[in-house]
Design a protein that fits this description.
By secondary structure, this protein is an alpha/beta fold. It has two domains: 40 residues; 344 residues, Glycoside hydrolase, family 3, N-terminal domain (TIM Barrel, Alpha-Beta Barrel), CATH 3.20.20.300. The chain has 16 helices and eight strands. Strand 2, helix 5 and strand 3 form a beta-alpha-beta unit. Helix 2 packs across helix 15 and helix 13 crosses helix 14. The longest helix is centred in the first third of the chain and has 37 residues. The chain is globular. It starts with a helix and ends with a helix.
Length: 396
């Protein structure tokens, strides 16, 4: 009997050990399951949200600077160019023949400009541009490729040929350090053979082909001059003027190439340049500072979410109406994203930059409004491959 009791106690002890092991095993499985549940990855915020958050954290001075597209005085990265790029944080630089002497010099200048942009602040590269439309509007003819005029290409009626010239132009410009071309012209019947034709049916397929060629080479382009200056009587380079055409006529003709591209093209792949005539059918303000045309039509009605850029603000079409201190502020309030100031004298660029900065600091323009423009600018720079949110911004 004593031996049987010992055997029973041994069995009880074995059962106890077995139960304890089973309990540990069960708890371990639950802990592993809990640990696996905690390890479920959290969804990464969208690109749009991450870009907006990044822009929101940039200093205001850099954000307003990104909205400036400026001219520089000479052929070198001199003190003036350095101040515009590194102190005013310009988002873009445009070149004219005054800046271009020969191939090696152009490459060196553009490299120096980009190095300057990347040496300070957010290190955001520049748009570097020319007006290389072809025909009569072209820079540095003895070095850069010059396409036939838009009128002569349009007369051939072959969009494939237009696309081929855009590809060749883009490749040539990129080899010298450019990443932007202020072309193609989407106006109807513009003088100096700058238009592909006189009707939307003639112009639309050619503008689309040119844009496709530039996008294939990841060169930023700009369709111009919204809402269409083919009917102007006075050159906006020299004075203000009114294009007295009714709204229905403008919408069914001059504006149609622009609307068609907005409906068909990726907004980050191009800009829309706006010139300075007045369109009384829409507004009494010059187009480049018209909230009706820029915000009500382009942004709200057409749902365009790419960059809107002014034509050169030094043109008489704007300077005859507003002071340098007023024009940049009015343009931003109206809906412009980039302010083009082409003069080799930097005074206008400094004045525009400081005026916009001042009114934002005063709360007359919200910082959210500035942020919206900078988001579009950086999305376009990413689209052409010169800047990347997930690497160049430090965001992972």
């Amino acid at each position: 009997m004593g031996k049987n009791k010992k055997l029973l106690r041994f069995k009880d002890y074995g059962l106890y050990i077995f139960s304890l092991c089973f309990l540990f095993l069960l708890v371990g499985c639950k802990q592993e399951a809990a640990s696996q549940a905690v390890a479920v990855p959290v969804a990464k915020p969208s690109y749009e949200k991450r870009l907006a958050d990044y822009v929101d954290k940039l200093p205001l001075e850099e954000k307003v600077g990104q909205m400036m597209f400026v001219g520089i005085p000479g052929t070198e990265y001199d003190a003036t160019a350095k101040k515009l790029v590194e102190e005013c944080h310009a988002g873009g630089v445009i070149h004219f023949d005054r800046n271009l002497s020969e191939g090696a010099q152009v490459q060196a200048l553009n490299s120096a400009l980009q190095a300057g942009a990347k040496s300070t602040g957010a290190k955001i590269p520049l748009f570097i541009s020319v007006d290389q439309e072809g025909g009569q509007v072209a820079r540095m003819r003895d070095t850069l490729l010059v396409a036939p005029s838009a009128a002569s290409l349009g007369a051939q009626g072959q969009p494939a040929v237009v696309r081929e010239w855009a590809v060749k132009t883009a490749q040539n410009l990129k080899s010298y350090g450019f990443n932007t071309n202020f072309a193609p012209v989407a106006d109807l019947g513009l003088t100096a053979q700058r238009s592909y034709g006189n009707t939307p049916a003639e112009v639309i397929p050619m503008v689309e082909a040119a844009m496709d060629g530039y996008r294939a080479e990841r060169l930023m382009c700009s369709i111009k001059h919204f809402p269409g200056i083919g009917k102007m009587q006075v050159d906006p380079h020299y004075d203000t003027s009114a294009i007295n055409v009714d709204k229905a006529e403008l919408e069914s003709n001059d504006m149609l190439p622009f609307l068609t591209m907005v409906n068909k093209k990726i907004p980050a792949s191009y800009m829309i340049m706006v010139s300075h005539p007045v369109y009384p059918a829409f507004d009494r303000e010059p187009a480049s500072v018209s909230k009706v045309l820029l915000t009500d039509v382009l942004r709200t009605e057409w749902q365009y979410n790419g960059i809107i850029i002014t034509d050169d603000m030094a043109m008489g079409g704007l300077t005859s109406v507003y002071s340098q201190k007023e024009m940049g502020v009015k343009a931003v309030m109206a809906g412009e994203d980039m302010l083009l100031s082409c003069s080799g004298d930097p005074t206008m660029s400094y004045t525009i930059y400081n005026s916009v900065l001042e009114v934002v600091r005063q709360g007359k323009i919200s910082e959210d409004r500035i942020n919206a423009s900078v988001v579009r600018i950086l999305a376009a720079k990413e689209a052409i491959g010169i800047w990347h949110l997930d690497t160049d911004s430090g965001i992972k």
